[in-house]
Amino acid sequence: VIIHDNSLQRTAGLRHRIADLTWTELQQVDPSVPSLEQLFKLFEGNDLGLYLEMKCDSPLEHVPLAKACCRLIDDFAFKQRLMIECFDLNALVVVKDIDSEIKTAALFHQSLFPEQRVIEKALATEASAVALHHRLAREPLVQKARDAGLHVAVWTVDDPAWVERARSTGIDALITNDPAAMLAHR
After folding, report:
1. Given this model, what pLDDT does residue 47 score?
2. N or C: which end of the chain has fewer CB within 10 A?
3. Can you tell me the distance from the alpha carbon of 156 to that of 171, in angstroms, rounded to the nearest whole number?
4. Could you give the 3-state DSSP secondary structure of residue 51?
5. DSSP states of 56-120
6. What mean pLDDT is reported for the chain?
């Protein structure tokens, strides 16, 4: 399913973990929680790129979650326009083992790895990209990623000033909560 949190507390005011509910139960929640298939059907009508974050609470979820995502990506022929990203870099290795053609992005928060290890870790997973927290997205690291052949995305940026910063530093994609504001400054 498509939801940021692992529970319904913030979005629906319910103290239920997503993993503990059935699909039928999730459909009864207001607002309802869409499936990945529903999202892909929505994207069939456009040619936009999509960053899909896999959220793994445990290593036991790597294989089943990666298989489900890879199957739907294949079913919808989205390999060229979709990037799977994940903080758990081992899950990205599983994705690549299932289908080496699917593009992946190693997702980094500023506290997870020292800056000098970001590129090394991303390359070790055979990632196509790094997705950097905006505080990590300083020009030297962006340049190192670009020099290593990695696509660079920055999250979560809601200030339109990032549009010009992306142009000047070689950032390829901006992940935002406010696409309209960002597009207005594109």
Report:
1. 93
2. C
3. 13
4. strand
5. -SSGGGHHHHHHHHHHHHHHTT-TTTEEEEESSHHHHHHHHHH-TTSEEEEEE-TTTS-HHHHHH
6. 94
**Amino acid letter, residue 60:** L
pLDDT band at 110 (very low <50, low <70, confident <90, very high): confident
Cβ–Cβ under 8 Å, residues 53 and 107: yes
Strand, coil or helix: 122 = helix
CA distances from 97 to 90, 100, 163 (A): 11, 6, 35
The residue to which tokens 């950097």 are assigned: 132
In this structure, the chain runs to a length of 186
Burial of 15 (0-12, 13-18, 19+ CB in 10 A): exposed
d(CA 28, CA 23): 9
- CA 121 from chain centre, in angstroms, equals 17
What counts of helices (H) and strands (E) characterise the chain? 9, 6
* Edge-to-edge strands, sheet with 82-86: 50-53, 82-86, 103-108, 129-133, 151-155, 173-174
Q: Please state, in angstroms and as integers, the Cα–Cα distance from residue 85 to each residue in 30, 97, 125, 175, following that order.
A: 27, 15, 11, 12
pTM above 0.85, yes or no: yes
Q: Which residue has the tokens 């103290």?
A: 15
Are 131 and 175 spatial neighbours (Cβ–Cβ below 8 Å)? yes
